[in-house]
Amino acid sequence: MYYVLSNEIANEKLDAELSGDVNLELGGDISFERGEVVSMLPIPKVIYTMNDDSRTGRMTDHLSLDEAYGLVFSSRLRELLFDLKIENIQYFDLDIVNPETKEVYNDYKIANVIGLVDCVDKKKSDLKYFASGNIKRIRKLILNESRIPRSAKIFRLSNDVTLPIVHDSVKKAIEASGISGCLFYNVEDYH
């Protein structure tokens, strides 16, 4: 069984909702959301500066940041994924700066999930597509799990690279560990 790892705020009452700007423009050649290895190294440290629209609260292990180029994981979440032997993620340095309090959060990294899997069951799913063939809108998403490699515990869909998919074992381990900020949707219920 597989789940969508959503980039939504998991607990709107407790969790920080951050808005801000980053210090550099990566350009079209570098992306942390395409499911591809970033080989143009080194990448300068990304500095995310919170703005007045940010709502402070609990800094979760999986943060939702606008303008941050991808998934943002704490050291706790990275260590758990390492312990689960998930090796298809590149991490890049990130500092989150609160200019109001002068606090700098440097426990986070941008996570580049590597691997695209072509496993959408197009006959059973209800999807709208862009002309490019990428998914524009999801009404109902069904995966053909026989097309997913057994080793794929976290990956991106080849038709919707912004949507990280995790195996049930990863979801259960995250929930059992008390990792915060992770919101999962059953693939069939995601739209």
What can you tell me about this protein's structure?
- With 191 residues, the protein is mainly beta.
- The protein has one domain.
- The protein is 10% helix and 35% strand.
- It is built from two helices and 14 strands.
- It has helices spanning 75-83, 168-177, and strands spanning 2-6, 20-22, 46-50, 62-63, 71-74, 89-98, 103-105, 108-113, 116-117, 126-129, 135-140, 154-157, 160-167, 183-186.
- Strands 2, 3, 4, 5, 6, 7 and 8 form a seven-stranded mixed sheet that branches.
- A hairpin with a 5-residue loop joins strand 10 (126-129) and strand 11 (135-140).
- The longest helix is centred in the C-terminal third of the chain and has 10 residues, at 168-177.
- The relative contact order is 0.24.
- The mean pLDDT is 89.
Could you name the key traits of this structure?
191 residues; globular; five-stranded mixed β-sheet; 2 helices; mainly beta; 14 strands
Span of the ends, CA to CA:
17 Å
Domains, number: 1
| Residue-averaged pLDDT | 89
Tell me the helix content: under 10%
Overall, the morphology is globular
- Return residue spans where pLDDT drops below 50 for at least 5 consecutive residues: none
Number of helices in the DSSP assignment: 2
| Main beta sheet strand tally, sense and closure | 7 strands, mixed
The topology string of helices and strands comes to EEEEEHEEEEEEEEHE
What's the number of extended β-strand segments?
Answer: 14
Strand content: 25-35%
Radius of gyration, CA atoms, in whole angstroms = 17 Å
Derived from helix and strand composition plus strand pairing, the structural class reads mainly beta
